[in-house]
Amino acid sequence: MTTLAVDYPNLSSFGHDPLWLIIVKSLGVFVFLLMTPLVAVYAERKVVAWMQMRVGPNRVGPWGLLQSVADGIKMALKEGLVPSGVDKPIYLLAPILAAVPAFMAFAVIPLGPEVSIFGTRTPLQLTDLPVGVLYVLAITSIGVYGIVLAGWASGSTYPLLGGLRSTAQVISYEIAMGLSFAAVFLLSRTMSTSGIVEAQDRVWYVFLLLPSFLIYVTSMVGETNRAPFDLPEAEGELVGGFHTEYSSLKFAMFMLAEYVNMATVSALATTMFLGGWHAPWPLSIWDGANSGWWPMLWFTVKVWTFMFGFVWLRSTLPRMRYDQFMNMGWKVLIPISLVWIMAVATFRALRNEGYDGWAWALLIVGTVVVVAVLGLVWRRLRTEPARDQLHPAPPEGSFDPMAGGFPVPPMPGQIMPAFQRTPVSVATTQEGSDA
Length: 435
Known about the structure:
It catalyses: a quinone + NADH + 5 H(+)(in) = a quinol + NAD(+) + 4 H(+)(out). Keywords: Cell membrane, Membrane, NAD, Oxidoreductase, Quinone, Translocase, Transmembrane, Transmembrane helix, Ubiquinone. Its EC number is 7.1.1.-. By secondary structure, this protein is an all-alpha fold. Helices cover 60% and strands 3% of the residues. It has 15 helices and two strands. Strands 1-2 form a two-stranded antiparallel ribbon. Helix 2 crosses helix 10, helix 3 (88-104) runs parallel beside helix 10 (248-273) and helix 4 (132-153) packs antiparallel against helix 5.
């Protein structure tokens, strides 16, 4: 019987930092995450305005750069109103439960290799665990309790519906997200974030595990409640969703949690699929690209690329219906993830047996799976009946008052079609008047 060697993550660099260095690294992560919403809100408003041929913020500060600061100060200084029908302890606790886990999840994200900080060698990572990725999934799952409890404690119908939607949404898409991570675990043989980054020193997993990457990107948009998956706060039917009854600083904490979560899932996508802090090609040819403080720059650029993707989706795609959203999670993402994990496990077994060419085979199979799924989606969209087939146009010269989905009066010169009224019997009318 042949015994295979198992590569365990090397975590010897962690747990030896002095107290002052732990405080410095913690403050650095906190400030980075605190500044991210300020920059992201301004960038989002400017990018969306540019895509929609508008101007965007341009009043407060040069080119509107201080608009986010002004909005934050305004939210903090506004009067905090507490409705009379709320469960006050839980109502006040919900924003904290939404914001704190968003910061905690960033503790195991590797920002770079070992560097020297005031003469002490330390990795650019607060800490790491043998199950670091599972820690991130557990912490981000706690954040949904803030949304659920906010909707329940508000004592109002629409926030409650928003909280219930969020529960079903997170359960559905966290399954697909966890399955996409399972393929990474199989290939890297570790659940440590630093170990996964180290395993991508030559080839990034976005190429070897393309289906897993696309599934994760879709799931992370649903996890952060961003368009087109912002169903828990769909103002079209739920006013503002779970935070309808919140104002002032409590409302700002929900917005802070949303943007910090965007940074966290973007950093996790960078770590799991884009090589983490490793420099992209052709910069990787340079010997010093993956040493010193340069990797932190590459990591930040990758994270903000995903952040731009969030903004792009918001300004491009309309909000999905709830049934479409749940069908995609349960009937598309999860089945594809299960089939893909079986394929990755097969290639992993071939690699353990010493077969060469497994990486090229995995790349080809992953590309074929993605092309096949996109082809099926395109075919389904092409075969759906057109609107004019579902609702035939009225005869020429007549006017359809329900063409836009709601009744409108005819314009001068338009002819109303003849409507067939349903006759009502005298007995039915008599019974209704007696009742």
